[in-house]
Amino acid sequence: MSHSVVLFDACILYPASLRDVLMYLAGSGLFQAKWTDRIHDEWISNLLENQSEISRERLERTRRKMNDSVLDSLVAGYEPLIDTVQLPDPNDRHVLAAAIYAGAGSIITNNIRDFPAGVLATYGIEAITPDEFLVRLIDENSGAVLATIKRQREHLKNPPRTVDEHLETLEKQGLSKTIAFLREHKTEM
Q1: pTM check: above 0.85
Q2: Cα(183)–Cα(126) distance, rounded to whole angstroms?
């Protein structure tokens, strides 16, 4: 998986704690993260709809930071492919089109059923959950993943988190296999 290209779906960028961990890992050099302005628009609009206490300005700042912190992350020019792909939900076609255009091997999503394996296989792409993605990263380079997650936790200031608090927060994001590994190595975090 080293230096492989992955496309982040909006659903995994919606929760701040998961987005934060993935962004730190995206900066680690273990893989190349990709997304689109449309994916940004989707997670931002969903957050604004569901959490009125968050301002658009704050989320737009997050968008800019994401784009600036991961070089070559923003996929553009994929739009002509949207009408050429078929998925159960036509609203997800833009995600697959962007993955194809970016040369991604994986779409990281919690909505696996929206991306049928048979359809994606014709493009050499798979849909995997964030937990499975992180487990693969751990299998490839556990030391780098542990160091990155430790660094991410240490940068949390508002509020700061203990290792156990951080693991509890991540566990709520459905990262059960990842958390099992991290708990075994919590002295390194």
Answers
A1: yes
A2: 28
